[in-house]
Amino acid sequence: MEVYSITINDHWIRISKKLWILLVLVICLLALHVTCAAKIQQPHIVFMIVDDLGWSDVSFHGSKQIPTPNIDAIARDGIILNNYYVAPTCSPSRGSLMTGKYPLRLGFQHEVIVANSPWVAFRILQGRISPNEERLRFLFWLLNGVEDYFTHFSDTTDMSGLDLHDGYENVWDFNGTYGTELFTTKAKEPLFLYIGQQAPHTGNFAKPLQVPDKYVKPLIGIPDEGRRNFCRNGICIDHSVGEIFDALEKSKMLDNTIFVFTTDNGGAVEGTDGSFGSNFPLRGSKYNLWEGGTRAVGFVWSPFLRHRSRIFNDLMHISDWLPTLVSAAAGTEVAKTMKHIDGVDLWPSFVHNLPSPRQDILLNIDSVDGVEGFRWKNFKLVKGSYYNETFDGWYDKNGKLIKGLLPAEPKARLKLYKRTYLKYLKRSKAARTLWRKYAKDPRLAISCHTPGCQTFPIVKCSRVIPPSESTCKPKEAACLFDIDDDPCEYFNIAEQYPEVVEQLQFAINRYRTAEKPPGGQPPDLAADPKLHGNVWKPWK
Ligand SMILES: [Ca+2]
Known about the structure:
This protein is α/β, with parallel strands linked by helices. Helices cover 28% and strands 15% of the residues.
């Protein structure tokens, strides 16, 4: 099994590289072992993680601003993950993905690990992959969380330099090539393909939203310029998904492929980080534990999934991908041998339409900021608040703070949108591929295979937004919500269910001793690209 890794983003390359090596080696070795022993057919795994895509930044969640027909077509023919959680920022999510562990076990529970911060695993970049591991190929990647989409230079407050790499080589000759298209081109020869797309995260702070003119047309109806430009980034991602899906079919690999799509955290709202994501109607934003920060866009598609075109309402956490993909590649018995992880093998649930064995999720314990959260069945507990309660409110479809009553959508506009959307969906590359190959029409309704299941992955809440101060003061006491009945976290029910609060608090405390000291360190001036030929690279 050849292994490729494209673009590693968002301040975490030092640890991620090591962890990714571990992940792919584990999967490859286990898969190889079982293939030899039992002649199991190995799947191709295509794993795409996108950066800062919010709940309402895809049209299959109901967004009428970002048409994502390719993403929607595959999601609607696959399994849509409707109670799927990630960390509220990049480093912890990606750390969990690589290790199958909760971020607090990695020292990733507090803030992101920035590119010029010393990190013990950093030396892994210094050519530690031996010639015997040459089949483990790392192609294009970038080190920082932000960079120019065209020049591929990354700027921090005090430092600037090229941040585009092919293995251990610096890549200078793609100046002018748009980032999303560059990585898509590089991703067309997969077997085990990890694609960490740069978008829709903002570029450098001086020019955060960059997109070629050809993506401008479909979104001229969005009045807010920042949101409009952010949406164009979302269209780029959709285009990328369609291209890769098409390439899989042309390479005759689709029949044997598992395709995973996930975001790494909720959308950043109101211009935070220069971004204009939307998590509507969920509460909060990137950086916090409300649903808007942690309930993620995600789906899995594969011909191996016998009951497709359905919504998976059971709990899932990003740490589950490691044992789940090991299970898919090597069998459930091999996945069971993975010890000391928090992730749960969901492959049998996906393939056989079984309930998830996962009953709870530790959302985080950050002792530095005093923020913690836990989901158990339908209940969710949140305690503490980041950034002095700045992101504790509700934000509309443009990522703007909602005050009072939410305006209703004009009916005529909804009709027009529906007609246009169905056309987009039918004409998308992914839909045409699904029709040609499997006679599947993604415009058809999602089916239900279990009693009480949903057929539409759209969260709806009351138009009346309660004042957050009156319902929940998470800095003073833990708040409790029933997410099944109240997905928008309007109503704090901690006083009605003190025994549930106590039980969830007890569950959190069980993890407290596992919390490692946060790994982020102050920037090291020796990391300055000026000292290394204007390139972001290992400096120690
Ligand atoms: Ca992110």
